Amino acid sequence: MGMNREAYRLANELRIEPEADRDCLIDGLGDMDMKKYQTAVLGEIRKEKKIRKRNYRNLAVAACAAVAVLTGATVFGEEVHAAIKQIGWSISSALGLSTDLANYREVVNTSVSDKGYVITLQEAVASQEKLVISYTLQREDGAPMEDILVPSESAFYINGKTVRAGSGGSADFLDQSQTILGVVAEYHLTGVDLSQKNEFRLCFGSIGWEDEVKGNWDFAFAADGSDLMMDTKRVEIGKEFALPDGVKIELEEFSSNDLEQRITFSRSGGTRYMIIVKAQDQQGHQVEFGTRSADEKGGYMQNEEIIDDGRMEEGSGEWTMTLYAVELPETDGRIPDDYVQIGESFSLSF
Question: Order of strands across the sheet with 161-162?
Answer without folding.
Answer: 161-162, 151-158, 197-207, 213-224
